[in-house]
Design brief:
heterodimer; A: 347 residues; mainly alpha; globular; disordered C terminus; B: 460 residues; alpha/beta; Ubiquitin-like (UB roll); Rossmann fold; 3 domains; 6-stranded mixed beta sheet; 4-stranded antiparallel beta sheet; 14 helices; disordered N terminus
Chain lengths: 347, 460
């Protein structure tokens, strides 16, 4: 017959695919992070963009170099290293020295990701693990926050004006209030408004300041079905509920849940890091458990822990619990009907 | 049965955002339905070619046994092979002519199967083996006998002999018959056209099936992407004192047409693992099967033709045909104007569960719902990447299995773990492989796993 290949392709079904690829998904994540990056550059200046370029470049380079050294197929084409780099940059203060960012990238790609077998095999989110590593290594550099819209020098941060993050301020205020005899005596620092938090004109890491920008990216990812709403919704609602109940100065149910939800790394973490495929549960119910677990840990760290912020540690801890969650949340077998008590008697 | 169906009432559908809720199941996928190129095209009757091939194995069960000899003249509709057991089916000649050979011929499955080859004399002389019966006075037993005599099997692709479904054991009480018009496979429109063009036969076939089972309630389930079929069926159906027939819109989703998932969507009943639809009081039949029952009883016509959709990116003019069974697929391709570009893969059935053909010269059999021709570009397999643990296969699996874990267990040869993963539940719908962003093929590992477990059982 004309126009028929002599040797037909014979494979088992299915014969079509939906066309989604790892690279396509990672590219979507990069696109979705752009609003947050732009907001970061807008608030903190061009050094934020430079830091992102350095982190992405370093991560891609280390991925390439590692694959070359151990002679395996170079996997930078799936853009996962670029995503790790971008997420790492989002989690750094704008004043972070470039060389420290490069060391963080090395840690993320080589130690957290490649040592365990590369994409799909790491058990912790590489960007978050690198952030935790940098925080313990260079605590000073990692917690130097600048006032929004101050000029930051490219290579020296000597003139950076230190500025507390909204959560640090809140923690400080709660402490001051609880120690003072009456609230009016205490020197309560003025907290940023909800609008500041929503738009991002506050201190913090490059990518976490603007809730609005993060939400734009999140809506994109949800619409493209890259992430499901389960983990972020469970996470954010849990934090809101717990901070409302336990986070106030006037006893139970007086906490400022909205302030907690909008500030710190919660939005960025919930939508971009707690939804990382590799390190979170694959079962639909497990994803909800994971989100709630992250929420509880974040609230506990924020309200009673030593750190003002707990998003990265909560996600990392839940990453480690993921295999266990998957094991106990496997979907129920199709067709199995629960036997009612009455039926057993009849049988 | 009431325990399974306690809180379910088909007539009480909730309204969500002003739209009536459409029932479905959890999981599944949403492939592009690709039906546009053939869904509006009327069925074209095709003349039989000079030579037809009738494999003795066109159904699930024992192969049929030839009852004609080489050189013998046969008439159109004459029985040429007799059912080889209870679960088996008669085969009839779709033309008049001479038996040329009874020999091994290539079967769509890719193996050689004993087949009856008939040379068409072009006279179309019809055999009067089966006489038309009066649908009003025919008895249930007569209907079942006729369905058996006419060689009717499930024409959705599974090809389970229909008379077996219509003869449930005495202890199984059947409550409902569902006619499966979901046609959830992309590209295929043969059932859609059958619903539109042979509506009367579909409805009368359902009434006969209900009569054979001595029950009242029948449903015709159609996916919402076939609104014209839903409207046409609704206009042709009237419930009366004898039968209560309803047209049910089910969600357009793959694999909505899977027997167990259709039952879940329409009746709310769950078919437990390892059980059959009749265990929950339901019998499911395909649209064209239903029409074939009507033709067999009312017109005395055995199953010798079926509707085949010919589509795919390499077909010059995609069409729906009514084809004499035994016609080679190459004949259909010619009638479509040939291949418009080089075809690299031919598929019998739909793209999700169909069988890839190794040659275009294999015959249309009772279960051939379509022929798809894909170009190299459409057919080539992508390089696989590492599993991302994204869970798309888990949430897409309509049987709630863990395709990613199954894959790992098969790779690790961990048979103990495999036995706990309910491999036997897999309906091989391919949703897991379809959605995988790493281009892996978990379904292939399920097949391997099943084979490994079977081998272990043989050893033990």
């Amino acid at each position: 017959m004309e126009n028929l290949k002599e040797k037909l392709i014979v494979t088992e079904s299915p014969h079509i695919r939906d066309g989604n690829t790892t690279g396509g998904i990672m590219l979507d994540v990069i696109i979705a992070l752009m609003p947050a990056l732009i907001a970061g550059v807008f608030v903190f200046g061009y050094r934020a963009a430079a830091l992102a370029v350095v982190c992405v470049g370093a991560c891609v380079f280390f991925e390439w170099a590692w694959c070359k050294i151990v002679k395996k197929q170079v996997s930078i084409g799936d853009f996962s290293a670029a995503v790790t780099g971008l997420l790492l940059a989002m989690n750094l203060p704008v004043t972070m020295p470039f060389w420290m960012a490069i060391v963080g990238s090395l840690f993320a790609i080589v130690i957290v990701k490649q040592f365990f077998g590369g994409i799909g095999h790491n058990f912790m989110n590489p960007a978050l693990a690198a952030r935790a590593f940098l925080l313990t290594s260079w605590a000073q550099a990692m917690t130097t926050w600048v006032q929004p819209f101050t000029k930051v020098a490219f290579f020296s941060n000597a003139d950076a004006v230190s500025h507390a993050t909204p959560l640090a301020q809140l923690a400080q205020n709660v402490d001051t209030v609880s120690q003072a005899t009456s609230a009016s005596d205490a020197a309560v620092a003025e907290l940023p408004s909800y609008l500041d938090l929503f738009l991002g004109t506050t201190g913090g890491c490059i990518g976490e300041v603007s809730a609005l920008a993060i939400l734009i990216g999140a809506v994109y990812l949800i619409c493209k079905r890259v992430i499901s709403i389960k983990i972020p919704a469970a996470y954010i609602l849990t934090v809101a509920a717990l901070t409302f109940v336990f986070g106030g100065n006037d006893g139970l149910f007086s906490g400022d849940a909205l302030y907690h939800v909008l500030s710190g790394g919660l939005m960025l973490g919930a939508f971009f890091m707690a939804t990382d495929y590799v390190t979170t549960p694959y079962t639909p119910n497990g994803q909800i458990v994971f989100g709630i677990g992250c929420g509880i840990l974040t609230a506990v760290i924020r309200l009673w822990g030593g750190y003002p912020e707990g998003v990265s540690y909560s996600i990392l801890l839940m990453n480690v619990a993921t295999p266990l969650i998957d094991k106990y949340t496997a979907p129920k077998r199709f067709g199995v009907v629960k036997e009612k008590k009455g039926d057993k008697k009849n049988a | 049965m009431s325990k399974i169906n306690a809180n379910f009432n088909l007539n009480k559908r909730r309204k969500i955002f002003g739209k009536t809720e459409v029932f479905t199941f959890k999981g599944g996928i949403h492939p592009d339905d690709m039906k546009g190129s053939t869904e509006t095209k009327a069925i074209v009757d095709i003349e039989a070619p000079a030579e037809l091939v009738f494999p003795l194995q066109q159904h699930i069960g024992a192969p049929a046994v030839p009852c004609v000899e080489v050189g013998q003249r046969v008439l159109m509709g004459q029985k040429i092979a007799e059912a080889g057991g209870f679960v088996s089916a008669n085969i009839h000649s779709s033309v008049s002519g001479t038996v040329k050979a009874i020999e091994q011929r290539l079967h769509p499955s890719g193996t050689k199967v004993q087949s009856i080859v008939i040379e068409n004399d072009g006279l179309n002389e019809v055999s009067d083996e089966l006489i038309p019966l009066d649908e009003e006075t025919v008895s249930p037993q007569e209907i079942i006998e006729r369905v058996k005599a006419a060689g009717i099997v499930g024409m959705g692709g599974a090809t389970f002999p229909t008379h077996v479904k219509l003869s449930p054991p005495a202890d199984k009480k059947i409550d409902y018959v569902i006619i499966n018009g979901a046609e959830c496979e992309p590209y295929l429109t043969s059932d859609h056209r059958a619903m539109l063009e042979t509506t009367d036969e579909v409805v009368r076939g359902l009434r006969l099936i209900l009569k054979a089972l001595a029950i009242k309630d029948g449903y015709i389930a159609v996916e919402t992407n076939k609104q014209d079929a839903i409207a046409k069926l609704k206009s042709c159906v009237q419930s009366d004192a004898d039968y209560n027939i309803k047209i049910v819109a089910v969600k357009t989703k793959y694999p909505q047409g899977s027997e167990k998932h259709l039952i879940k969507a329409v009746t709310g009943r769950s078919v437990p693992p390892g059980k059959l639809p009749m265990d929950v009081g339901v019998v499911v039949n395909n649209i064209d099967t239903c029409a074939a029952v009507a033709r067999a009883v009312i017109q005395g016509k055995p199953l010798i033709r079926r509707i085949v959709t010919v589509s795919g990116d390499c077909i010059a003019e995609p069409l729906n045909f009514r084809v004499p069974i035994g016609t080679p697929f190459s004949h259909l391709v010619e009638k479509c104007g040939g291949f418009s570009k080089t075809a690299a893969k031919l598929i019998m059935g739909g793209p999700m569960m169909g069988v890839a053909l190794s040659s275009v010269d294999v015959p249309v059999i009772k279960g051939s719902s379509g022929l798809l021709a894909f170009s190299e570009e459409m057919a080539k397999t992508q390089q696989t990447a590492s599993c991302l643990r994204c869970g798309k296969c888990v949430s897409g699996c309509p049987m709630n299995l863990l395709p990613n874990v199954i894959k790992e267990a098969v790779c690790a040869d961990d048979l103990e773990k495999l036995t706990k993963l309910n491999l036997g539940d897999c309906i091989q719908c391919g949703s897991c492989s379809y959605v995988c962003p790493a281009e892996q093929n978990p379904l292939q590992y399920v097949r391997t796993g099943k084979a490994k477990l079977a081998r272990q059982e043989v050893k033990a």
